[in-house]
Amino acid sequence: MGPAASGVPETGGTGVGVPWKLLTAPEHLPTVGPEMLVALDVDGTIITHGGECYPEVFEAVRRVVDAGAHVVIATGRGPESTGPVLEMLGLTAGYAVSSNGAITLEVDGGLEGGYRLLDVVTFPPEPTLRRLRELLPTALFMVEDGQARRWVTQPFPPGEVLGTPIVLDFEELCRLPASRVTLRAPDLNSADVHSLLLDAGLHGVSYSVGWTAWVDIAPAGVSKATALERIREHLGLSPFATVAVGDGHNDHEMLDWASWSVAMGQAWRDTQLHAQAIAPAVEDRGLAAVLNSLRFRH
Prior knowledge:
The protein is α/β, with parallel strands linked by helices. The chain has helices at 55-66, 79-89, 126-135, 170-174, 190-198, 224-235, 252-257, 269-272, 286-292, and strands at residues 37-40, 70-74, 93-98, 103-108, 115-120, 140-144, 150-152, 166-167, 180-184, 205-209, 214-219, 242-246, 260-263, 277-278. The chain folds into 2 domains: 20-121 and 223-292, 3-Layer(aba) Sandwich (Rossmann fold), CATH 3.40.50; 126-219, Hypothetical Protein, Haloacid Dehalogenase-like Hydrolase, Chain: A, domain 2. 26% of the residues lie in helices and 21% in strands. Helix 1 (55-66) packs parallel to helix 9. The two termini are 36 Å apart.
């Protein structure tokens, strides 16, 4: 999900890195095929924040998949919300990174939901939950546990969470092992929450703030990049054959990790600073421009 930060988001062609009109994959990357790993953020990259995937983007993703590359969805979404994206893109094998790296999925189109949990990293959420509740007593909280089940203190605003998480008392929520903690403050904006968290004194966790007042909190040292690196090593791929595209604070480590990293045009400047190139915005089919710039075998 996209970040909140001070400043003005850059548009395609005006940020750091390579302007999108000159977007060309670097020569060191192999041609698209089984020796390449392509990591893609979902919201703001594959689909718009309104939930639309443009045909040009879908076709570009399918072109990379059909050429044999390892396309890995890397998202802040939990598994239940990642499954529909896998289905939409026709991804029936391989791997996906969910919950900002705390959960790695093995993609299997023959299973209900299209995946199985492969690796889950959890942490005790109580100190974080109590500190956040002290700072924001009216906030809503959600905990995703080690089985990717979701528990909330009260329902989130309509349309923000796929499915129906189970309502649980705050004290019981504190006792669950958490792969992710989510804070939602409907009465605040993202800049307000971002400012509060800067001095929150949270320990043993990492966090990212979204475009709305939505915060995802993960175990310390866990990110999309850590999960992607395990996948890359498992597949036996060169670290110089990796591509990553994203638009948010939770993509910073992934963009730093990739051999070629591209930030979306609508990303905030601090996110673009982690990328080697800037794509058009998601509304301008930016991901299609990135993927079509890769070299394909003829």
